[in-house]
Design goal:
The complex is a heterodimer. Chain A contains 11 helices and 18 strands. In chain A, the strands form 3 sheets. In chain A, strands 1, 2, 3, 4, 5, 16, 17 and 18 form an 8-stranded mixed sheet that branches. Chain A has a 6-stranded mixed sheet with strand order 8-11-12-13-14-15. Chain A has a 4-stranded mixed sheet with strand order 6-7-9-10. The chains are: A alpha/beta, B alpha/beta.
Chain lengths: ~425, ~450
């Protein structure tokens, strides 16, 4: 059945042809409400959702997917990962995560994205349709570069939106060339100060939107380190993401946001729960990995699995991501995300908040919005055979931009090839 | 450390060194059977109890819905429906699940101790890397019992773990099996009575280490395999000389700690855990084992074992596998999440392993992922089979299969009462018993065991 629907989807996916899909008998988690719409019919036309209604009708000629009463969610979103930049972590020539450029700041990861990567295929097969791709530390301490949002449609082009922020790293031993985290914070503040002094009149907002293949929003490369990267942050177009874990640094991040009047995201945030009050007060979002309960460094001594629950209760917006994790985290950008969200629920996060942390929240945090099942929304959605936060659940259909995408991974193909090996 | 404390430790060491061999000699054991580092583990007094009305997965393939289990004197006494209570504490386990305690056969707990610091990067205790042949090392002499990984494992239902040396040396040394309980030293945690484990490695790890200019050792796969064969040849000669000297023919060769350990492998007294990824690497080491007449206990990681299940099955060698470590190096490109169900279907003894203090907390979830990947290609694995991958199969590898890993009368009461289905991400270990004594009780967070390291640092264990 699944293969048949896939073939139909392929047959109907002629260039520029409108495709209509109706998902019927869905337990539809719209994200607009706290509970699902039971027995929903979700109609998708021209890449958008046009209706979500209990027992709704099916348009003529629509490709029908019967969800059989199982959950349907918006496509899941990983709030911080490096899929599309990495193939074999142990082989630098297959990895595009970091800049080694001494002279020019920045690393626009959108130019390195590879939708043909096996890591992307597996993440999509696990129900991920979008992901924030972050760069690794550069030679321009404390900056890494400019992260991008990826959309896991079929094919090589998975760029959704480039330059969605500026990414920095602060922590114990994070920067040999700077040393103390005091100096790291000073360098970050200096870059903001310099950016402020050289700031041109703000660009009209409409010229900043949806660049795809054009010049980086931060301006052409060159100039003093940090200056052009920082401009968008100071103008309020993009957030400053700071990957940091220790409570003292998280409070520094909050102070920095207040002092410069900029939007800050904390990524990692192992000890963010200890600063929940100040994070809520300064409206700083946190992208964390709920799996973490062991400290890789002294910065993470307070790592605990109810971090997401404590922060959410305090009013902090939380998304799940996998920055700075184990060797294999990037390799499981889909399954690891779902496992993390599930574990957050096991540790006290309300279920609906966990779903938000892997759908609407990361998209809102990275300035994109969306991630709902609502009329007018982009048709990125997944039909599951069970609870999406259970690792034992399978994504049966993954629909990206209104089209059924490939949901068989290379792993599935290998498993099928050797299925009967004795 | 003060001179006074060094002196104290040296004194303890001296006592151990004299007590060990003397005890061993009384049994007239072979040198490779001797254990110079005896256990001081004592099971605490048992908490006798009758758990009622649970879904019981016995670890050996059986399942009882609405089952009772009676524990007395540290052992399982009875299991079934509507058991009579001989007057012990009764626990209402309706809606909950009971399984044997989880057994993780591949950890570096106590040696890869988080948080890592500069000393770990300069001189890690994970493996001795001055030589490709560290067969003389005993990893227990490095284990830091204050590693909080033991506490996390216990709170997540792990009751036994094997600590292995790392995979840089080809002959990496002896393993140790421990209970994740609080003790001042690893010997307060050490499990005895199983088969002594040993770690070996093939493929990228040893060869890339050898290829570094500063290091000794082979630089290629063929070099690694030939290094193994030469060492087994030398050990064969050594073992023969020892046996002949014992029989009164010839003189006893001088003790050689490396040859002694490898001779133990040849004698079947020391069981090899072999780190290997590619199908060709696995086939090569199985051929070496056949050539020298011993059985490899398990291929660890074994990411391509699913391509050659027959070779493992025929050799009686198990596979210790992951669900979701793949791709991070060239030899792991073809790793698949569905490996465990494929091997199970092909009749290979398979088990989940962690290699990570993080993942070791969720081996049943790893099993759930693996089973789901099997379902994607039409292979259904029931819960009572999946649980074997984390209980009775790993017990076999450790030579403890008659004592732990299965729930049946006479077995040690290493059991977990889960809040729900052990393969659900939402389930928690409510109660963990080791030898019939409560080692973890989730309803009593104040009793949560924490390491000395965590004490007073304001983290999770406070």
């Amino acid at each position: 059945m699944r293969i048949l629907v896939s073939l139909l989807a392929l047959a109907l996916a002629a260039p520029a042809a409108a495709q209509t899909i109706a998902v019927i008998h869905a337990d539809a988690w719209t994200m607009d409400a706290d509970t699902p719409v039971r027995d929903a019919t979700i109609v998708i036309e021209n890449g958008r959702i046009t209706s979500v209604a209990a027992g709704g009708g099916v348009p003529n000629g629509a490709t029908v997917i019967d969800a059989r009463g199982k959950p349907v969610t918006p496509g899941l979103v990983n709030g911080a990962t490096q899929i599309g930049l990495v193939e074999i972590a142990g082989s630098p020539d297959t990895s595009d995560t970091g800049s080694a450029d001494e002279r020019n700041p920045g690393n626009d990861v959108s130019r390195a994205l590879n939708g043909n990567s096996t890591l992307v295929g597996l993440a999509r097969a696990d129900g991920i349709t979008r992901a924030l791709i972050f760069p690794s530390p550069s030679r321009q301490a404390p900056f890494s570069g400019e992260p991008a949002l990826a959309r896991l449609r079929d094919g090589v082009d998975i760029l959704d939106k480039p330059n969605v922020g500026v990414y920095a790293v602060i922590g114990g031993g994070a920067w040999d060339r700077l040393g103390s985290r005091g100096v790291q914070w000073a360098a970050l503040r200096k870059a903001l100060d310099e950016g402020k002094r050289g700031l041109a009149p703000p660009l009209p907002a409409d010229k900043k939107k949806d660049r795809k293949g054009g010049a980086p929003a931060g301006g052409p490369p060159g100039g003093r380190p940090g200056e052009e990267l920082i401009r968008g942050v100071l103008q309020g177009h993009v957030p400053l993401a700071i990957q940091t874990n220790r409570e003292s640094d998280i409070r520094q991040a909050a102070a920095l946001a207040s002092d410069f009047g900029i939007r800050v995201i904390v990524v990692g945030g192992a000890e963010a729960w200890r600063a929940a009050d100040v994070l809520a007060a300064t409206k700083i979002d946190v992208i964390l990995d709920p799996v973490a309960n062991l400290p890789f460094s002294f910065d993470q001594l307070g790592a605990r699995q109810d971090n997401a629950a404590i922060l959410t209760k305090a009013g902090v917006r939380v998304a799940v991501g996998q920055a700075g994790g184990a060797i294999h985290a990037t390799y499981n950008a889909g399954m690891g995300l779902r496992e993390g969200a599930g574990l957050a629920v096991a540790n006290g996060l309300p279920y609906i908040d966990a779903l938000r942390a892997v759908t609407v929240n990361p998209l809102a945090i990275w300035g994109r919005g969306g991630g709902t099942l609502a009329p007018g929304a982009d048709a990125d959605l997944v039909v599951w055979d069970g609870d999406p936060l259970e690792p034992s659940t399978i994504a049966l259909h993954v629909i990206v931009e209104g089209r059924e995408a490939e949901s068989r991974s290379r792993q599935d193909r290998l498993a099928e090839r050797y299925r009967d090996a004795r | 450390m003060s001179m006074k404390r060094i002196g104290l430790l040296a004194a303890i060491g001296a006592i151990l060194c004299t007590a060990g061999p003397a005890g061993a000699q009384r049994q007239a054991s072979w040198p490779w059977q001797q254990d110079p580092f005896p256990s001081r583990y004592h099971a605490p007094p048992a908490d006798d109890m009758l758990l009622r009305g649970a879904t019981i997965l016995d670890g050996a393939g059986g399942r009882i819905d609405g089952g009772d289990i009676l524990l007395r004197g540290g052992k399982i006494v009875a299991m079934g429906k509507n058991l009579a209570n001989p007057g012990v504490r009764e626990v209402d386990a309706r809606g909950r699940w009971i399984t044997p305690g989880v057994i993780d056969v591949h950890t570096h707990n106590g040696t890869f101790v988080l948080p890592l610091t500069a000393i770990d990067r300069e001189a890690s205790d994970v493996s001795e890397v001055s030589t490709p042949n560290a067969a003389d090392t005993w990893i227990e002499t490095a284990v830091n019992a204050q590693d909080m990984a033991f506490d996390r494992a216990l709170a997540n239902g792990v009751t036994t773990t094997q600590i292995l040396p790392g995979s840089t040396p080809i002959f990496a040394g002896r393993s140790v099996v421990v209970k994740p309980v609080r003790g001042a030293t690893v010997w307060d945690m050490k499990v005895t009575g199983g088969v002594q484990g040993f770690k070996m490695a093939c493929g990228e790890n040893p060869k890339s280490w050898g290829a570094d200019d500063d290091n000794e050792g082979p630089t290629s796969r063929q070099g690694v395999i030939s290094y193994m064969r030469q060492e087994f040849l030398d050990a064969q000669r050594y073992k023969r000389a020892v046996e002949q000297a014992r029989a009164g023919a010839g003189t006893m060769p001088p003790r050689d700690l490396k040859l002694e350990a490898v001779a133990g492998i040849l004698a079947g007294d020391v069981r090899v855990n072999l780190h290997c990824y590619r199908a060709g690497d696995i086939a090569a080491v199985l051929a070496v084992a056949k050539e020298f007449g011993f059985r490899i206990g398990a291929i660890h990681h074994a990411t391509e074992a699913y391509k050659i299940p027959g070779l493992l099955r025929e050799a009686g060698t198990c596979a210790a596998v992951w669900a979701d470590w793949w791709g991070f190096k060239v030899e792991a490109q073809d790793a698949i999440r569905a490996e465990a169900p494929l091997l199970e279907r092909a009749g290979v003894c398979v088990m989940m392993h962690s290699d990570s203090a993080n993942d070791g907390q969720r081996l049943n979830i790893a099993a759930a992922k693996a089973a789901a990947a099997g379902r994607r290609i039409g292979i259904d694995t029931p819960a009572e089979t999946m649980i074997k991958w984390t209980t009775s199969n790993p017990a076999k590898l450790l030579g403890l299969e008659k004592r732990i890993g299965t729930l049946a009368p006479g077995f040690e009461a290493d059991i977990v009462l889960w809040s729900g289905d052990p393969f659900s991400i939402y389930s928690r270990a409510d109660l963990v018993l080791i030898g019939g004594a409560i080692a973890w009780d989730r309803s009593k967070p104040r009793a949560e065991p924490i390491s000395d390291f965590e004490l007073g640092r304001g983290g999770i264990g406070q």
